[in-house]
């Protein structure tokens, strides 16, 4: 999402949104930011499992320590 969102933003950077007067790249900013957040969440989950900390799966009761 980050890579292709960035490519889409780069290709539309020359366009202007007529109602707002800003670059067309802002249309794809949520895609890039969302991809970055997914990446950070994934890294956090991998780091927790690698360090041996318990992680709750979706649908299970919360992990208590």
Describe, in plain words, how this protein is organized in 3D.
With 65 residues, the chain is mainly alpha-helical. Helices cover 49% and strands 6% of the residues. The protein contains two helices and two strands. It has helices at residues 2-11, 29-50; strands at 16-17, 22-23. The longest helix is centred in the middle third of the chain and has 22 residues, at 29-50. It is elongated, with a radius of gyration of 18 Å.
What is the structure about, briefly put?
The protein has 2 helices and 2 strands; from the N terminus they run H-E-E-H. By secondary structure, the protein is mainly alpha-helical. Helix 1 runs antiparallel to helix 2.
Based on helices, strands and strand pairing, what is the structural class?
mainly alpha
Note the run of SSEs as H and E. Answer: HEEH
Shape: elongated
Give the strand order of the largest sheet, numbering strands 1, 2, ... along the chain: 1-2
**Overall tally of domains:** 1
Helix content: 40-55%
Q: Which regions have little confidence, pLDDT < 50, spanning 5+ residues?
A: none
Distance between the termini: 35 Å
Radius of gyration, Cα only, in angstroms?
18 Å
List keywords for this structure.
65 residues; mainly alpha; two-stranded antiparallel sheet; 2 helices; 6% strand
């Amino acid at each position: 999402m980050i890579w292709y969102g960035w490519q889409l933003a780069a290709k539309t950077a020359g366009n202007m949104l007529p109602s707002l007067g800003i670059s067309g790249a802002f249309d794809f900013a949520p895609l890039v930011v969302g991809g970055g957040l997914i990446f950070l969440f994934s890294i956090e989950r991998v780091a927790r499992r690698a360090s041996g900390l318990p992680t709750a799966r979706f649908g299970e009761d919360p992990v208590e320590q």
